[in-house]
Design a protein that fits this description.
Elements (H helix, E strand, L loop, with lengths): L1 H24 L6 H11 L5 H21 L3 H19 L12 H16 L6 H4 L7 H20 L6 H12 L1
Helix pairs in contact: 1-2, 1-3, 1-5, 2-3, 3-4, 4-5, 4-7, 5-7
């Protein structure tokens, strides 16, 4: 079981480190902080550069900690929060990623939550330090913290203007 958890943590964490560094530094074909800030602006975040930096840090930092199995519930909470925001950005396009939907951020968030419940396994920094950061309380705590932070960030966006709503509806119909 520990090998399976290690594989899951390293792959999931590594992919999210990649996503975060795309936003922060433009690595792996990403837009960097400037491109990510433009995208966040299009999603009506009040401070798009700050939102892009925080999303990149949550993905890269949460992914790195998750891969190491270090502070696993906190890493999971960071990833849940940023992935709920990512899912909200694509919610209007439905579930499936092939249509630009929220399938991938949903899968990342649920996988991180599952790791908060199960813990990182025996091959982890948490276990090496003797920390028993697993179980239903840790899992629920990670979900609550992730959803709470996601809600606060989503709530802080600028209200949608009627012209923006009409343009979005036109793009969806196309």
């Amino acid at each position: 079981m520990s090998i399976g958890l290690l594989i899951l943590r390293v792959v999931l964490g590594g992919l999210l480190v990649g996503h975060g560094t795309q936003k922060l530094f433009g690595w792996f074909g990403g837009g960097g902080l400037d491109g990510s800030a433009r995208f966040m602006g299009s999603l009506r975040y009040r401070q798009p550069r700050v939102a892009a930096a925080l999303a990149g840090l949550a993905e890269a930092g949460g992914g790195f900690f998750l891969a190491l199995g270090f502070l696993t519930p906190l890493a999971a909470a960071a990833l849940i929060g940023v992935m709920v925001n990512a899912a909200a950005a694509s919610a209007g396009r439905g579930l499936w990623a092939s249509k630009g939907g929220f399938e991938l951020p949903l899968f990342y968030a649920v996988s991180a939550a599952a790791l908060a419940f199960t813990g990182p396994g025996a091959i982890s920094i948490d276990r090496a330090l003797g920390w028993g950061l697993s179980g239903w309380m840790w899992g629920l705590g990670a979900i609550a913290l992730g959803l709470g932070s996601a809600a606060a960030v989503l709530w802080s966006r600028r209200p949608e203007q009627p012209a923006e709503a009409a343009e979005q509806q036109r793009r969806r119909a196309a």
